[in-house]
Amino acid sequence: MTITTAKLDDAKNIAKIITKTWETAFEDIVSSKDSKKDETFLTTIMKNNISKNLEKIFILKDKNRVVGFISGVETKCLSTYEIKGLYILPKYQGLGYGKVLLDTIIEYAKQFSYKKIYLQTLKGAKNNIFYERYGFKIEDEFMLKLGNNSYKGISFIKNI
Q: What is the pTM of this model?
């Protein structure tokens, strides 16, 4: 297993990971129509984010295959760093890769004197248990628009 900073060539793999993960991660929460992601569109977004350094993105490779990534951004609150995405291909979930990626971005955030790490996800999602086990606490609930529907969202925060 290796972790590196994402490069432009990684954009397509990142988009594929998002697409594949969304197919199963939120299946009991989000309608299949709203959970379908366009890989070409996501590749364009990720290329833009990488080339303009809009997000810090770390990719995780298993035997030279990109199987997961985590991304984050600075927030308006100078003490808080926000995780924008943590995705691992379904067949690689449960192997400890999520914890490794979280540890990586937390160490990165600490280098810039951030004191907290924040993220948003869907309420009732399978990943909520993972975040709670990792020490994240529920901060807030909100409504999230996906497609033509609204879904309950939840934010988590953790002191680092």
A: 0.92
d(CA 121, CA 134): 15
Q: Which residues contact 18 (CB under 8 A, 6 or more apart)?
A: 37, 42, 85, 87
pLDDT tens for each residue of 36-50: 678 999 999 999 999
| CA–CA distance, 40 with 26 (Å, rounded to integer) | 21
Which residue type occupies 37?
K
Nearest Cα neighbor of 6 from 53, 73, 64 is: 53
What residue ranges define each of the domains in the chain, with the CATH number in brackets?
2-115 (3.40.630.30)
CB 83 within 8 A of CB 37: no
Q: Which helix (H) or strand (E) holds 52?
A: none
